Amino acid sequence: MITSTITSKGQTTIPKPIREKMGLSNHDRIAYKFEKEKVIITPLKGVIFGIRGSVKSTRRPENFRAIRETTRKRVGRSKS
Which of 5, 8, 29, 67 lies 20 to 30 Å from 19 when distance is taken between CA atoms? Predict the structure, then answer.
């Protein structure tokens, strides 16, 4: 079992064997997910869709079609 220590600031170092196995390097981002009594750490690499669902939101989904239409109307008015 590989372990690490939590500092007084709540920080810890991900041990080198774990970083290598996960393909992590300096300034990479990771996500934490709780599952029952465990924490799952996932590297956030690649396209933006890789982090989809990693943040819970209480807001309703945006109506992007309506936003685009409003933007088109406003841009159209400003050109006149």
Answer: 8
